[in-house]
Amino acid sequence: MDCIFCGLLREGTASWVARGPVACAFTPLNPLAPGHTLVVPTLHYADVFETPPDVLAAVTALVQRVAEAARTALKASGVNILSASGPGSEQSVPHLHVHVVPRWVDDGISTWPTGRSAHHVTGDPVARLADALASGRRHTS
């Protein structure tokens, strides 16, 4: 496997913010803001779809700790928490990762989408989601 994040974990060459047995946090090469951090599972899981719930919980717990550290240590007034999973999401590295981007009022960046999707689904998307969650089934199309 040729995963850049797995390589960083194996070689220990990242700028580490935190290292744990299930989840780690490090700074990306091109941070969007001071303190921008990536939180990843220590084992390779491509995205949210294949990550076991207990690992996802550990990643989320570390995301929360990093966000709180950004607020206290960097005096950030907020954070953006960003993740993409799957080919239609613009996921850049096929290893689950969550960006924690510290934010300040008038910091000059925007991480929020500015447009709306042109994709349409058949039927009521809310009802389809509710049905899938209730039944455990996945809908296609």
TrEMBL record:
The active site is at H97 (tele-amp-histidine intermediate). GO terms for molecular function: catalytic activity. Transmembrane segments: none annotated. A motif (Histidine triad motif) lies at residues 95-99. One of its GO terms (biological process) is nucleotide metabolic process. Residues 4-110 form the HIT domain. PANTHER family: ADENOSINE 5'-MONOPHOSPHORAMIDASE HNT1, HIT FAMILY PROTEIN 1. This is HIT domain-containing protein.
